Amino acid sequence: MQYKLIMGNQAYSSWSLRAWLLLRAFDIKFEQEVVPLYGPEWRDYQINVAPANTVPTLLAGEGADQITVWDSLAIAEFLHERHPEARIWPRETHARAAARSLCAEMHSSYVALRSTLPMNVRREYRTVKADAETLADIARIESLWAWAAARWGGTGPYLFGERMTAADAFYAPVASRIRTYHVPLKPVSQAYCDTLLAHPATQEFYRAGRRESWVLEQVEFDQE
């Protein structure tokens, strides 16, 4: 099946990084289109790709049979159904349930982290400090990482062992934020973040984001 992934700016779009990793890191071939957030192209996208109203959106197939899948969690489940050989979710039942729960919590929670430390792959800040609510979000995330890795990670670098899963893809933007704002972590959590950011697919996404010319001033903290 032919796939096209529609993303927001790769410099800023954490949701787009998740979907990108669900495809690129699992060797699923796809085309891509970047729609600059909040500009004229963004309004056209919302009209032309309705009912999708957000990015990322995955277009699967062509013509009248084309399937539109929006929202990164829906994309993960769709790709899992279409490509079971990719092992997007862990094979073992308990691990798979845990991975899905981790993704769902990432998907619905951590408002303080998202709002106060937005993703920006082009910058690193040492003076932007996380507030108490954001630090509480990060502490919760670290506790979940430690729990999953202790139970299923074994000696592997990822939460569920030697292979990346959807859970790792969903937390990659957290690792990106940690780097951008130099948030101190426990050593084991920092090592996990470093693993996510060193993955070839993440590195490719970063390079593309750094080449973009679009600037969203609301997430560039040193611009008036």
Give your account of this protein's structure.
51% of the residues lie in helices and 8% in strands. By secondary structure, it is of the alpha+beta class. The protein folds into two domains: 3-86, Glutaredoxin, CATH 3.40.30.10; 93-205, Up-down Bundle (Glutathione S-transferase Yfyf (Class Pi), Chain A, domain 2). α1 packs parallel to α3 (72-82), α1 packs across α7 (166-181) and α7 (166-181) packs across α8. The relative contact order is 0.16.
What is the gist of this entry?
With 224 residues, this protein is α+β, with helices and mostly antiparallel strands. The protein is 51% helix and 8% strand.
CATH architecture of the largest domain: Up-down Bundle
SSE ordering: EHEHEEHHHHHHH
Q: What is the number of helices?
A: 9
Profile the largest sheet. Answer: 4 strands, mixed
Structural class: alpha+beta
End-to-end Cα distance, whole Å, is 46 Å
How many beta-strand segments?
4
CATH C-level label of the largest domain: Mainly Alpha
The strand order across the widest sheet is: 2-1-3-4
Fill in the CATH topology of the largest domain. Glutathione S-transferase Yfyf (Class Pi), Chain A, domain 2
Outline the low-pLDDT stretches: none
Give Rg in angstroms.
Answer: 17 Å
Proportion of residues in helical segments: 40-55%
> Which term fits the overall shape?
globular
